[in-house]
Every structure is written in structure tokens, then in C-alpha cells.
Amino acid sequence: MQAIEILLIEDNPGDIEITRQSLNSGKINNKLQVVMDGEEALDYLFQRGKHEKSNLPDMILLDLNLPKVSGREILKALKEDELRKSIPVIILSSSEAAADIDESYQLHANCFVTKPVQLETFMDVVQVIESFWINIVRLPDQL
Amino acid sequence: MTQIIDILLIEDNPGDIELIKAGFDEARMAISLNVISDGEEAINFFDGDEKLPDLVLLDINLPKVSGFEVLKAIRSNDASSNIPVVVLTSSESESDVTNSYKGHANSFITKPVDINKFLEVMKSIENFWLTIVKLPSEQTADRSYC
User: Fold this and answer.
1) How many structural domains are present in chain A?
2) Predicted ipTM?
3) Contact check, Cβ <8 Å, B133/A112
4) Which residues of A touch B (CB under 8 A)?
5) CB atoms within 10 A of CB B24
6) Predicted confidence (pLDDT) per residue in A18-46, tens digit
7) What's the domain range around A10?
């Protein structure tokens, strides 16, 4: 089976490391790409500049608070784009605010997950996300 | 705090309805499951003034009106546009998968044929959507008071 490409858009190095370790520890064949700011994320997803030849991911883990361009703007751009709107976007944010949750769904995030503060719980949550979206859910065909 | 999670199941197959109910029987949280068995009735439900669900499980092949039309109606109605919709169907067709995501379904799941696997999938849906995920806040447009 072809590796599932996951794009993590996250600026916090600690959270990147936890997510990476957690995704490496499972049995699922995945390939993780990381982009650390919103502007570069847009270049990556819309295949511009140095990311001209990037592959579109099978799913996206998106933080909301990012340097330069916010996660909301990235979400909006993706879900308004005819080709890219089918890529599942999982919001993975430290926010628990109802306004952030509601706005994300309004902008068509596929789901909203709050990062747990505790390390082990965070790792468990990433593994549940991986297992649900890769083993249970049917992802769209690779674009 | 006991919060009841309202789930609306839009499904016409009695066997699948039973399995889904059985899957939620063992849930760790309080769930209220309502069932609507045809597409037209589902659209009328979202056009009406009944309390909106927290989560929708939607079959694609429904009598009268397809699940895609129901999804479109849910997404085009302001009060229901942000309710998570999990497509749960026997279809494996790639165009159904793509069209569901393009219509802003939140996830697409093919029902396993094997009963035990179906129950495992129900457990995963419960664990992911009701435990890990933050659902939108209660619909503010409480239409029952309109």
C-alpha cells in the first residue's frame, strides 16, 4: 500500500516532535511533511515557489495560530478551491474556545481536536486520529 | 455533568439501523439516537423547527432523495451548516467518496459487510467523534423557540 501523505502545519517545535514520534510509533505506513508557517503552507498546498513540485497530501493536520498567515485563512483557501476542498483537514489546536471550534466547522474543517496538555495523552490522541482517518475512514483518491 | 449527545441517523436499511443502535448501546456517554428513513423526510426535518442534532450519520442511497441532496440541504441551511456529517454507506465508489468530501461531508466511511467489523467501526466512530473531537457548540439558533 502506498504511504499516506500527511501534512502537518504547525509552528511549535515541541508539538511537531510529539506528533512525529506518535505517527512513527504506529503500524500505519505514513509520510509526514511539516511546514512551520502559514505563508509557506499556502505555497506548499498551492504548489508555488520552492514547493512547485510538492505532492498534495492525503490529509492535513492544521494548527490555528501560525506565523504570517493563520490556520483559518489556510482552511478557507483550501475549502474554496475546487480541487483541494476534498482533502480532509483536521484542526489540531491548543484552543478550546467555542468561537474557534464553531468558526472552524463553518469554514468546513473536517473536525476539530484540542491538543491535550499532557504529553502521553497528546500522543494517544494523535494515534487515535491516525488510526481513525487511515483505518476507518475512506480518504479521497490521491490528487 | 451529563450531557446528552443528539445523533441523527439517516438510514433506510432496518438491519443497519439495528446494528448502529447496538453499536451505540455500549457507548460510554449518554446518546439520544433519532432515525429518519428517507431522504425527503430528512430534508423536511432540517427545514423544520425541531431541535438540531450534534452529529449526523448519513447513508447515501436513500429512498426518494439521495444522501447527497440531504447533505446539500444541511450545508445550505444556516442553522445546520456546521453540524458534522459522517457519511456511512455501503458504497465504495470513488466518485461517491470525492463527491461527499466536496459536498463538505466531514468523513466518509464504508460500512463493513462483516457484523463484528461493523460494530468495531461504530466503536471507532463513537471514540473519535464523541470523545476526541470537539463538536460545534449547541446550535444557537434554537428553532424550537421561534
Assistant:
1) 1
2) 0.94
3) yes
4) 79, 82, 85-88, 96, 98, 101-102, 105-106, 108, 110-114, 125, 128-129, 131-133, 135-141
5) 21
6) 999 999 987 788 999 999 999 999 999 99
7) 4-133
